[in-house]
Design goal:
210 residues, alpha/beta, Ribosomal Protein L4, Chain: A, six-stranded mixed beta sheet, 31% helix
């Protein structure tokens, strides 16, 4: 298998050289069908499933027959809460439910490898030795950092949660910061570039080789 390399950058987003990436994680040929299945599984898990409508038995009122069965010249009606009435119950409406379905761990892990590879194989992965030093959240600094890289859309992967970095990119709509434990297929595919903290690489390997 060919060597997979990424550009190594400093805290000013200047390229310092190259770093080799593990080919069994960043060199897997992506398969659209498998990636689609993993993304579908993710989005199903995120659905709240709280939509709820009332049936005719749950709508208040309508206990009395609105008019006699016969001799009125009108169609027979049993209740003003039947589905054809305004304010009536809903037929086959949504009820609270879970949309989640099972997907094997092996498939989920392979999907994550393919998503990472989809960026590495087209040279859209950067490995950061450090990020800009900030005492408080600074969107301007991070915007300049990304401009130096020539991108507006990037997923930044850090070893563990970094609230300072997260708040610094809050106002950049196409940028997101994730810890390794939160790394997922949807967010990787939803951003053009991947910026990985150098210290996060061993954690990614550990997570995907368990």
């Amino acid at each position: 298998m060919a060597e997979i390399k990424a550009k190594l950058i400093d805290d000013k987003a200047q390229v310092k050289g190259e770093i080799e990436l593990p080919s069994d994680i960043f060199g897997v040929t992506p398969r659209e069908g498998l990636l689609h299945e993993v993304v579908r599984w993710q989005m199903a898990r995120w659905r709240a499933g709280t939509a709820s409508t009332k049936t005719r038995g749950e709508v208040r009122g309508g206990g009395r027959k609105p008019w006699p069965q016969k001799h009125t010249g009108r169609a027979r009606q049993g209740s003003i809460r039947a589905p054809q009435w305004v304010g009536g119950g809903v037929v086959f409406g949504p009820k609270p439910r879970s949309y989640e379905f099972k997907l094997n761990k092996k498939v989920r892990r392979l999907g994550l490898k393919m998503a990472l590879s989809s960026r590495a194989l087209i040279d859209r992965v950067f490995v950061a030795e450090a990020f800009p030093s900030m005492e408080s959240p600074k969107t301007k600094i991070m915007k300049e950092y990304l401009k130096n890289l020539g991108t507006e859309s990037a997923l930044i992967v850090v070893p563990e949660r970094n609230k300072l970095l997260e708040k610094s990119v809050d106002n950049l709509p196409k940028v997101k910061v994730l810890a390794v434990e939160g790394l997922n297929v949807y967010d990787i595919l939803n951003h053009e570039h991947l910026i990985i903290d150098k210290e996060a690489l061993p954690k990614i390997e550990e997570r995907l080789r368990r």
